[in-house]
Amino acid sequence: MSSAVVTEGLTKRYGRRTALSDCTLDVPAGHVVGLVGPNGAGKSTLLQMICGLLQPTAGRLTVLGGEPISGSPRLGFVAQDTPVYAGLTVEDHLRLGAHLNPSWDDQLAHDRTERLDLDPGQKAGKLSGGQRAQLALTLAVAKRPDLLLLDEPVAALDPLARREFLQGLMEYVAESGTSVVMSSHLVADLERVCDYLIVLVKSRVRVTGEVEELLASHHRITGGRIDPAALGPGREVIVARHTDVQSTLVVRSTAPIEDPAFTVDGIDLEDLVLAYMTEAGPSGRDRVLEKQR
Amino acid sequence: MIWLTWRQFRTQAVIGVAVTVAVGVLFVATRGSLLQLARDMGYQGCTTGCDELADQFLRRISGTNYGRLQQNGSILMFVLPALIGLFWGAPLVARELEAGTHRLVWNQTVSRDRWLAVKLGLIGLLAVAIAGLLSWAITAWASPIDRAGNWLMPATFSVRGVVPIGYAAFAFVAGVTVGMLMRRTVPAMAVTLVVVASAMALSILFLRPNLAAHSTYQGQLTTDKVGGISLSPSDPARRIRVEAEAPVRHAWVLSNDVTTSTGAPWAGPYDPAKCGPNAPGERLGCAQWIASQNLQQKVIYLGPEKFWPLQWRELGVFLTISALLATFCFWWIRRRVA
Amino acid sequence: MIEFHLDARSGVAPYMQLIQQVRHAMRLGLLREGDKLPTVKDVVATIAINPNTVLKAYRELEYEGLVQPRPGLGTFVTRTLGGESELAAHEPLRRDLDGWLAKARDAGLDDESIEALFVSAFRQFSQERAGRRG
Q1: What is the ipTM of this complex?
Q2: Touch test A–B: 3 Cβ pairs or more under 8 Å
Q3: pTM of the predicted model as reported, rounded to 2 decimal places
């Protein structure tokens, strides 16, 4: 299995502000990868470095086996807020794609816009948020990229538009097998569509892996008050909450935990991400992050 | 990329070409009648007394439609570089950065170099072509007026011949550069305006005078060489300022000194019986008195034959600066922008 | 052709839900031998889930002998479930169940409690089977 993106100690600094810190990743091809983390974690920075819009300050980055290039024919990118040319029509945007991309699939582009009921003569500035996102996605997929990067594509959309966007995206992935890296701070959507996860908090990578494997290896343990260090080897405590009599821990362990003193539960993706986001918080920070349900 | 540049720019291009054609036609159409007037007045094709005929011709022109046309033509050519810099140059990159569309277009299969090269090249070419055509039409139209008058004067020189092409190219590339650095369209327009105006002013003050060898005239200050006289009747020191004229008509005087025979600058005191409101001889009497003071004049000037050499050299300088700015733009856009 | 749906809150893995829905449809007679299952592309276009999830479900169904992929044509059902004959074959199980219900009633459980007890035991049983501790 080849890698879509490989990074080693990747860092991006703006003066004194560090956007991305020492990231080492090996993102497999042929997956839908969820890049999740709170706002300001560095997701946009990472995506923009992959597509060549930003240069790293330090570290190495390999995209599809080579150097990242700005304007690569093999990469599609949908930026945050899905920018489009307000004065150009939908049809103009498709012609833009056709003129600027040798690998442009005009049939696919027009099929998509027809099915999405996008009026070709409509100026892009007058489209709704959902329609703009669909137009931007059409532009990105019709060049038939090997790797598709989406920066919070559904953040500003209403639930119906979000669902339609993801449906269209999954349909494209089903037919083309393209690798996708999609960033979001809403985990609920990612749970349906992603099979690989990267959690990025405060400019650092906290955990990566196949979703199935992550869900199988993380457990929520509830029991009497216990010191996390006393759990024994092979069990990594991600986050721990204590009352005077009870402890609740999120633990990563490859071997199953069969200790009668504890109640061991599985954990869903959202709670897993929240656990890692909490782990990264400053000490004493209240675990007040609510589920996005 | 050519299609995209055209599609994004077509409204501006059409307006630019339409204005150019309209203005150009206007000047070309009236050229014949202006020449006819010059011929009728005896100035065109004169063999003797041309100076006098020239002055008459110029006096005849001013206040008429020809005079207004000449003025408006000059104003247009004066602001044209700034307009190009503001409306064609500054928004080129700034608007993309401001709207975030650079993240859309630079992720198509086009390198930033090619993107910038096509935009700079096509629009820059159009800007230069418009400036060149308009300047040619107006310069050709104004040739009898310019020959009768002083076309080396900074205000006239800057709007004739080929230098407007240099200004237009510079203003365009400077606008693109400023927009690219500032990333915001409206502030970039303001800064571009300042940059273009300063460049044109600095060129007049420091560049243009040094683009050709100066001519110097030194000699006795005679009555006919006394030009402007200024004094204040109420001045107890009775200071007087004399401007000597160049030996050549219609020169661009760069410096002008009136000195005593020892070389010290001379500033009076003037004889109130000869010069001033109470003197009987008026200007001529004062001039004669000044001439009798045994003064020397030193004039540094550029003669009217220097017009075209100065034009081509100034154009060369501005085109070179434009090329350097463009190179900087390519470097910057590859490395710094996201 | 059947249509799938996903219950994001059920705690059951998505691919498992698809498998259950196919089996359920077969038992109800909505899917018979020779019927075509929706293509992966159609499924994900309706419910936005990862195509690999659908592939996994279809593979599992193939492993269980319920469906068969035909290259270029699609995935087709190979058996017919459900109907009286299917359930009739499990008569002993049915009698055991009747006995258990009688015992639960005798123990004083009302309808809701019986159902809750059964559902909770069944859930736990299913999840253990699916490889997740619950």
Answers
A1: 0.86
A2: yes
A3: 0.84
